[in-house]
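Moderator note: this is an archived Q&A kept for reference. The question asked for a predicted structure of one protein chain; the sequence and the answer are reproduced below.
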Amino acid sequence: MSWLYDSMEPRIGKTYLYYKTAKDIWGGVQKMYSDIENTTQSFEMRSTIHSTKQGSMIVTNYFNSLTNLWQEMDLYYETELHRR
């Protein structure tokens, strides 16, 4: 789970330091930062993804950039798993 903490900004990661499992951390983060019904944020994220271009980035950096954006976009969509 240390990789999960290390991937967060230190001020945010401290909040989740004492969670027992990665699932608990992900659940807490989603609850705190996700706004599933915020269509404005969803629209802005889609616009950002659409306008992202490779430009002078190497393919790996471009792919990682898009992957991060797609993962952030996933926070705005409720799935069957979240409705249970």
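Archived answer notes: Residues 36-84 form one domain.
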